[in-house]
UniProtKB/TrEMBL annotation:
Pfam families: BofC_C. InterPro entries: BofC_C, BofC_C_sf. This is Regulator. PROSITE patterns: PROKAR_LIPOPROTEIN. Gene3D superfamilies: Bypass-of-forespore C, C-terminal domain. Residues 143-218 form the Bypass of forespore C C-terminal domain.
């Protein structure tokens, strides 16, 4: 009888131990899956927070850009480099490209202080600055039209008679920038037939040659230029 009782106790303990092992295994697996889920979620958030290049055509600020001397640019760059070098931390980095028509913003990801220092030294014409969040913004200027401008830019005349760069045909009235007031009366009498009508409908510009050619052609009919010519004649 004692032997039978002993065997029953062994079997009971074995079942209890097996249930305990299974419970621990299930709990551990659940914790592991939860941890992997959190890591995956954070990874996806990081990926989504780093956008691809964003291109913008509009540039409605027609004021003359501020002229910064080479000495001031160099001093600013030195200060940025010193801040980056002193912190020694990696920072989110963005590249802002300003074209004659349009801008483009590109995320360069998170760069170490050594990578940033090397990048700025390789491109001394780029301006660097730190924003309030400690992110690095690199800025460069390119004497060309952005790809978006090449696809959608039109030169035309605005409702108030100014030579204007539009996104799409002038009838859509999506103004990118204005240049100067046109002497419409002089244009209608001096230009070959159909040219003024073409300007009203919009002239496609797909590269810098076309862009400069249109500005040069109609620059002869800028109000200020016309007034100077009339004064010289009389």
């Amino acid at each position: 009888m004692k032997r039978l009782s002993w065997k029953k106790q062994i079997k009971r303990r074995w079942k209890q131990w097996r249930r305990t092992v299974w419970a621990c295994t299930i709990f551990g697996s659940a914790c592991l899956l939860a941890g992997l889920g959190i890591l995956f979620s954070r990874h996806m958030q990081t990926m989504l927070s780093q956008p691809l290049a964003t291109t913008v055509m509009a540039d409605v600020d027609t004021e003359e850009p501020s002229h910064t001397s080479p000495a001031e640019v160099h001093s600013s760059q030195v200060q940025v480099l010193q801040s980056i070098r002193a912190s020694g931390i990696s920072r989110k980095t963005h590249l802002l490209t300003t074209y004659v028509c349009g801008t483009e913003t590109l995320s360069l990801g998170t760069l170490s202080s050594q990578q940033l220092e090397s990048l700025l030294k390789q491109h001394p014409d780029w301006k660097g600055r730190l924003n309030s969040r400690g992110e690095v913004w690199l800025e460069r200027k390119v004497e060309d039209l952005s790809e978006l401008c090449k696809q959608h830019a039109y030169m035309g005349i605005s409702m108030d008679g100014q030579l204007t760069l539009f996104e799409g045909p002038p009838k859509k009235e999506k103004v990118i920038r204005t240049f100067f007031q046109l002497d419409v009366g002089s244009m209608e009498t001096a230009l070959p037939e159909g040219v003024y009508e073409q300007l009203q409908q919009g002239i496609r510009v797909q590269d810098m040659n076309e862009y400069n050619s249109v500005i040069s052609t109609f620059g002869d009919f800028a109000v200020e230029r016309t007034q100077r010519v009339l004064k010289q004649q009389y």
